Amino acid sequence: LRKLASSNNRLREESWLKSLFVRKVDPRKDAHSNLLAKKETSSLYKLQFHNVKPECLEAYNKICQEVLPKIHEDKHYPCTLVGTWNTWYGEQDQAVHLWRYEGGYPALTEVMNKLKENQEFSRFRKERSNMLLSRKNQLLLEFSFWNEPVPRSGPNIYELRSYQLRPGTMIEWGNYWARAIRFRQDGNEAVGGFFSQIGELYMVHHLWAYKDLQTREDIRNAAWHKHGWEELVYYTASSTPQNLASSSIPSSLMTVLSTSKHTASAEQKSFLNSEWETILGRIFLLQKKINI
Fold first, then answer.
1. How many other C-beta atoms lie within 10 A of the C-beta of residue 83?
2. Which of 69, 75, 136 is CA-nearest to residue 110?
3. Is the dihedral of CA 210, 215, 217, 222 positive or negative?
4. Dihedral of CA 200/203/206/212: which sign?
5. Nearest in space to 97 (alpha carbons), one of 48, 135, 44
6. For the NIPSNAP domain, which residue ranges apply (predicted)?
């Protein structure tokens, strides 16, 4: 009887905790883009991953530095190059680019059509294709509870944490992180939060900025001393059965640092399929407009 009573008490406590941290939303009522994205902006983001031939990385960075800033600075292209990095550890010889399209899908279409007519960009793409092993991209929207990436004092290192969620759990993830984000604002480290719309689905990306790796360690450890953080981590960790971590720091273009992998416990496999951690390092930035 004592065991039964203890078990019932535990269940009631867990139910009470869940009621604190979960806002009941029926994901069938509307699209994720309407429930989770910002209403006041129509910005669309594109995240690009380019795996570069090791012997070509320096040349790849050089041509990117020559061409991409021109697109970023051209007022006739409704897009902004938020940041671009090279990976150092984890995925080696990888370049990561984050673009913002002010105006959503119409802006993206406009940029694509203009780039087709841009002879310099056509030559750039042809030259770049000889340097790549593979590439992929995703179209993303911002979570409503994250700030838009904006200029900040630096230099900083940047960490991209990517999560592949189980289908049907995006709303829960958004509910938990709308509460969790308040625990991660002390050092102004939260840069942006995004979820995929086209490309690899059920993906979430959180972008963080830190002065250096030690500051990152201190801030992350400090979060565990805040009441409520551990419950939020527990329930969001239940979204992925395994974690993959990598990190990065920039070269002349930008950069990713340390890699680790582990499998989550059995009770933590409810809504995450996998997690990637990437420290992107100091951003090679077009210093005028996008020093985030």
1. 26
2. 75
3. negative
4. negative
5. 48
6. 158-238
Tokens 């059995």 correspond to: 266
Place of tokens 């933590």: 268
CB burial string 133-145: b at 16+ within 10 A, e below = eeeeebbbbbbeb
- Judging by beta carbons within 10 Å of its beta carbon (0-12, 13-18, 19+), is residue 159 exposed, middle or buried? buried
pLDDT digits (tens, 9 = 90+) for 198-219: 998 889 998 888 888 898 889 8
pTM higher than 0.85, yes or no? no
3-state secondary structure of 167: coil
Q: Which stretches of the chain are assigned E, i.e. beta strand?
A: 44-52, 79-88, 94-101, 132-142, 157-165, 190-198, 203-210, 242-245, 256, 260-263, 272-279
Q: How far apart are CA 3 and CA 121, in angstroms?
A: 70
Domain architecture of the chain: domains with CATH: 30-279 (3.30.70.100)
Mean pLDDT rounded to a whole number for the chain: 73
Range ranked top by mean pLDDT from 38-52, 132-146, 251-265: 132-146
- 10-18's contacts with Cβ under 8 Å and 24+ in sequence apart are 17/231, 18/235
3-state DSSP helix/strand/coil % of the chain, to nearest 5: 35, 30, 35
Contact 31, 175 (CB under 8 A): no
pLDDT of residue 279: 61
Q: What is the pLDDT of residues 27-82, one digit of tens each?
A: 445 454 454 555 545 689 999 999 999 999 999 999 999 999 999 999 999 999 98
Long-range contact pairs involving 152-155 (C-beta distance under 8 Å, separation at least 24) = 152/188, 152/191, 152/209, 152/291, 152/292, 154/282, 154/283, 154/291, 155/211, 155/282
